[in-house]
Amino acid sequence: MRSLGLVAAASFSASLALFAPKAALAGPCDNPQSGACINSDTLWPHVGPSRFVAIGGTETIEAGKVGFGLVADYQSRPIRLRTPSPGPLGTDQNAVNDQVNATFAFEYGITKKLELGLMVPVTLGQGGSGTSAITGGDDIRDTAVRDMRFGLAYSVLAPKKVDPGYAGSAHAADGLGLALRMEMSAPTGDKGQFAGEEGAVYIPSVAADYRLGRFYAAGEAGARVRQTATFLESRVGSQLAFGLGAGVDILAHERLSVSAEARILPTLTKQQVTSQDAVGNTTTTPSGYIAPAEWLLAVRSAPFRGSDIAGQLAGGGSIPTASESAITVPRFRFVLSIVFAPRGIDSDGDGVLDRDDLCPSVAGPRVSQKPGCPEPPPQATPPQATPPQDLLSPPPPLPAPASPSLSSPMAVPPAANAPMLGR
Fold it and tell me: Whole-angstrom Cα distance, residue 120 to residue 115?
């Protein structure tokens, strides 16, 4: 395990060096009028066990186990451009009108506290004008490959891995959890399709959560460090990232939960405003900052024992901020996810994980007819009643008559025809 962890860490370090910013050459992202090297989807879900859509959890999967998941989302009008026109307001264009994305997530538990994750997002369908309103070219393609992400998560502090739905472990799962993450987005997406960035994006973050009985809450703070990309009046550079959520278990064993969450991405790069006068002269002046923000309401269910498999359905929209409408904020969004993350829950502490334990709330041996169930007590054998002797065995034999012997004083009776002596 240790050697595998070293290999994973070395691979991650090599990836950071490979995608580190280098001297830029002329490319499709250099033209601020047609580059479109901006990621239209700011929902970057984490791998691993989590009760929220966009906020990372503090648990990691079991050591030596593999988890995977699928997160699909639909967003409406995530890229809305304002093109220069006579007058100060300009004209709005829906560069991306509708978009359906899917993220395929994979993870591996290096140790019980460290996991390695890989996220591969793709666009399954989209529509919009793209850059055609500016360049006169074609609209955006129906499908696209997006920037993949990978990274490490380390669980600094995690409550005991038990199911709070059992009476014996109702409060054993209460407490604070803390995790550190270091992820990176690699520029593998299709250029000019609003599917990725010009360079790598570094994503450090810290996540914390707290459970008290049926109620739980979580938060995450981090950053997205990137090169500044300019497209028309919009500039997307490095951002801070904050998320906060709370939820409650409606049914025991996480069979049904509801939650609400919100996130905001304050951009550290000033925007710009372009205006055009009556004779066609264009003027660009610095503007304020943008802070893309969204909210989501979600329903989650983990229907199987052990809670390793969970599905989630969420919906939400943009949060009005002090800045103007940000370029990467959709009108509304819907998310559907299903995740398999082996959590290693053992509620009764008998060494048999809940997913294999037929009696997950009562400790029992690993090897038995019912794994994890206590052995039944040996049944006492009732004493056997002794039946009467005369009903079970025949009566004892009578003694045989004694045979006369030669030394017996008894006289032998004379024979009938023997002569009588002394007559």
Answer: 17
